[in-house]
Amino acid sequence: MNEIVKKLAGLGLPGVILVILTVASGGSSAAVAATLTALGGPFGIVGGIALLGLITVAGDAVAGYGIEAILKAIYEERSKTESVTFLLNEIKDLPITEELKLKLKNQLRPENSTDAQKVEIPKVVEIVE
To answer: What backbone phi and psi angles, to 5 degrees, belong to 39?
Structure first.
């Protein structure tokens, strides 16, 4: 078992994911291949294996810079091309701490230092005849 553990540990996070896939599929290699194919989408099993590689790159980045710095950079970049309102709603649903959500929201909306939502009051136009 030590030899297998060393080889899987050498793979890093993709090794952990591969173990979870294997256990979840009951140890069937066909089920693991099917899962990798499903993860790969239109690129099939090759895409699934590439996704495991991408997970490694993302894991290394998070380990080097920290999740907060990575998420801030991602949302800062996305705010250049996407609606800030959409991004704020997306952040609200992320499985992260409330403190980190608040930091991300404040970065996108620096003029507000609280978590309060902006409320726009519609203007009432009175028609005089």
So the answer is: -65, -30
Burial class of residue 30 (count of CB atoms within 10 Å of its CB; 0-12, 13-18, 19+): exposed
For the entire predicted model, the pTM comes to: 0.54
Give the pair of three-digit tokens for residue 113. 């230092």
d(CA 71, CA 104): 8
Is residue 102 within 8 Å of residue 115, measured between CB atoms?
yes
Asked whether 56 and 14 are in contact (CB, 8 A), the reply is yes
Which of 74, 82, 129 has the alpha carbon at shortest distance from 107?
Answer: 74
CA distances from 80 to 40, 43, 77, 83, 87 (A): 28, 29, 6, 8, 11
Tens digit of pLDDT for each residue in 15-66? 667 777 777 766 677 777 887 788 788 888 888 888 877 777 777 777 778 8
